Amino acid sequence: MRFLSPARSARAVAAVCALVPAALAAQLPVSTGANAASGPDSRWEVATNGGPFAAAQIVASPSFEWAPNTAAYRWISSLATASTGGATTFAFRLAFDLTGYDPATASLTFRYAVDNDDLGVRLNGGAATLGAGTNYQFGGVQTLTTGFVAGLNTLTFNLTGDGTTDGLVVDVQSFTAAPTSVVPEPGTVALTGVGLALAGVVARRRRQA
Q1: Strands of 167-176's sheet, edge to edge?
Q2: Which of 9-13, 43-47, 137-141, 198-202 has the lowest mean pLDDT?
Q3: End-to-end CA, the chain
Q4: What angle do CA 204, 205, 209 make, to 5 degrees?
């Protein structure tokens, strides 16, 4: 059997001890249309006229009046054409999970634009804040630092449309939050025990030598 040197054993144990549950990056806030150029947006949902939520559709060819799409963000609507056939209300919703983070330290910075009229942004159903631009262009940068909760959070953008072209674009510029302490999972503890036992065997062999 081949044994590790004490130095390598120590590094192996340290590496095992550093194991933590999978990162939550895929669940944190993202811009509209950030993960596809067309089709449904896998993270954003939309409800019209108070109906049920369904996956929002990425508008691959925005109206010439709209701020242009980029690789970082794209317009979304209830239909890929952005035409809904009649005046309606929209609620666009993003769900994100702060499990593993301290919600008191969370800070989300973003900007957004709507077509047609902005009714405000709500974090977890709280008070609405306004910040959309006019003429379908981005408004000022917004920063949310309160209202986050542990676990699942929702960010909802409400607006009204005229049935011609209606949609939303959100540019998430940054999100920061301090991680909470993580208790190792049972499998991680078991691996750590194996590493420590191996280090002990190496130490005993060296003493016997």
Answers
A1: 117-123, 152-161, 88-97, 39-48, 54-58, 76-77, 167-176, 107-115, 142-144
A2: 9-13
A3: 16
A4: 120
DSSP per-residue string spanning 83-136 = --SS-EEEEEEEEEE-TTB-GGG-EEEEEEEEESEEEEEEETT---B----STT
- Report the b/e string of 30-45 with b at 16+ CB within 10 A: bbbbbeeeeeebebbb
Q: What are phi and psi of 97, to 5 degrees?
A: -110, 120
The per-residue pLDDT for 22 is: 41
What residues contact residue 156 under an 8 Å CB cut-off, 6+ apart?
A: 91, 92, 93, 94, 121, 122, 123, 125
Parallel, antiparallel or unpaired: strands 117-123 and 76-77? unpaired
Q: Which single residue is written with the structure tokens 């016997």? A: 208
Tell me the pTM: 0.76
Closest CA to 77 of 138, 163, 173, 174: 163
Which among 27, 23, 52, 22 is positioned nearest to 42, based on CA atoms? Answer: 27
